[in-house]
Specification:
It is a single chain. This protein has a three-stranded antiparallel β-sheet with strand order 1-3-2, covered by helices on one side. Helix 1 (16-32) crosses helix 2. The termini are far apart. By secondary structure, the protein is of the alpha+beta class. It contains three helices and three strands. It is globular and about 45 Å long. Strand 2 (37-43) and strand 3 form a beta hairpin.
Length: 98
């Protein structure tokens, strides 16, 4: 097995949405390749997240796994052409209960 380390330069360390994107990427990788061991951490003077993936054969394999993992959740992310922010509280409650 190979141990791949990727620095996520595009994710701002002070932005909540960047942290959520990192969690989403880790979840997508786990769904697509459950045999991989995935860890994340922050280090350095400019603390950008870094991923360590045990079992990936390179950047192309990670990109393919991300696509597969996100595609697996496509139906859960379909809001019928509406943006999530468009829902009223009652509509959102009904959607979440469903």
């Amino acid at each position: 097995m190979t141990l791949l380390q990727l620095r996520c330069n595009g994710l701002e360390p002070t932005k909540l949405v960047a942290f959520l994107a990192l969690l989403g990427a880790m979840r997508a990788l786990r769904v697509a390749r459950p045999e991989w061991r995935i860890r994340a951490w922050w280090s350095g003077d400019d603390p950008r997240p870094e991923l360590e993936i045990d079992g990936a054969d390179g950047d192309d394999a990670v990109a393919s796994a991300l696509l597969d993992g996100v595609s697996a959740h496509r139906t859960a992310l379909d809001f019928g052409g509406r943006k999530l922010a468009d829902y009223t509280p009652l509509e959102m409650r009904a959607l979440l209960l469903d």
